[in-house]
Design a protein that fits this description.
Distance between the termini: 44 Å
Number of helices: 9
Oligomer: single chain
Radius of gyration: 18 Å
Structural class: alpha/beta
Largest sheet: 6 strands, mixed
Strand content: 15-25%
Helix content: 25-40%
Strand order of the largest sheet: 1-2-3-4-5-6
Order of helices and strands: EEEHEHHEEEEEEEEHEHHEHHH
Bound molecules: zinc ion
Length: 255
């Protein structure tokens, strides 16, 4: 049986998401920005919370953990390098560890850059990627604790995943990301197609995620820093991809 998912907004623009194994009745929340929307999603699905898989220590991803854990006695899985800053951690994980949610299995991918210890969870059988604040649709996280080079290397690990992988990220930032991406690649047809799709989704008051990694590889400038036309468009033709990436990230900070 494929994994089921339930996506919902938390706080201002955070996403919460549940991943559910129907056979074994296990359900994981990916991060816990706040408890109430997670509870509402559990009530509407009838699922029971068994696990919380944490991507990183920021409060807008962890503030709901203690309340949910005290009520559901669920297991809290978190990145080893950030466990001290995350409440209620039962198990820590690092690169290539496998995490089970009932019969579902996720591979841990360390993606430092936004924070130093961030991890993402990739469910290979269902082609689901939970990218936290590393990769957004048509964008990426800010470099807060690491370096641009570090985040670029992390994004390359995500880019190596299959095109049909569905990308779940931590925030609804897609429309603003598209406005910026057009300044980097005004002639990108895949980006124009994504812009039309996102406009339609937002007009229908629907989330813009999940997207697919295939769409992101074609349209997200932060995954395209090694494309010759992207380097040329930011005045860095022939320069190393990490340098081009750093320039794009810096321009986005100022945008
Ligand atoms: Zn964050």
């Amino acid at each position: 049986m494929p994994a089921q998912t339930r996506l919902f907004l938390c706080l201002k623009d955070n996403y919460g998401v549940l991943v559910h194994d129907t056979e074994r009745k296990a359900t994981a929340a990916i991060d816990a920005p706040e408890a109430a929307p997670v509870e509402a999603a559990l009530r509407s699905t009838g699922w029971t919370l068994t696990d919380i898989l944490v991507t990183h220590h920021h409060g807008d991803h962890t503030a709901g953990i203690e309340e949910l854990k005290s009520r559901h006695r669920c297991r809290v899985v978190a990145p080893e390098a950030e466990a001290d800053g995350i409440p209620g951690v039962d198990e820590t994980v690092r690169e290539n560890d496998m995490v089970r949610v009932g019969g579902l299995e996720a591979r841990v991918i360390e993606t430092p850059g936004h924070t130093l210890g961030q991890v993402n969870y990739f469910f290979p059988a269902d082609r689901l990627l939970f990218a936290g604040d590393t990769l957004f649709s048509i964008g990426c996280g800010r470099v807060i604790e690491g370096t641009p080079e570090m985040l670029w290397a992390s994004l390359l690990k995500l880019r190596a995943l299959p095109d049909d992988t569905r990308l779940y990220c931590g925030h609804e930032y897609t429309a603003a990301n598209i406005r910026f991406a057009k300044t980097v690649e005004p002639g990108n047809a895949a980006l124009a197609a994504r812009e039309r799709e996102v406009a339609r989704l937002l007009a229908e008051k629907k989330p813009t995620i999940p997207s697919t990694l295939g769409e992101e590889k074609a349209a997200n400038p932060f995954l395209r820093a090694d494309a010759a036309e992207v380097a040329a468009n930011v005045g860095l033709a022939g320069k190393p991809a990490a340098q081009v990436f750093a320039e794009i990230r810096e321009r986005k900070n100022r945008f």
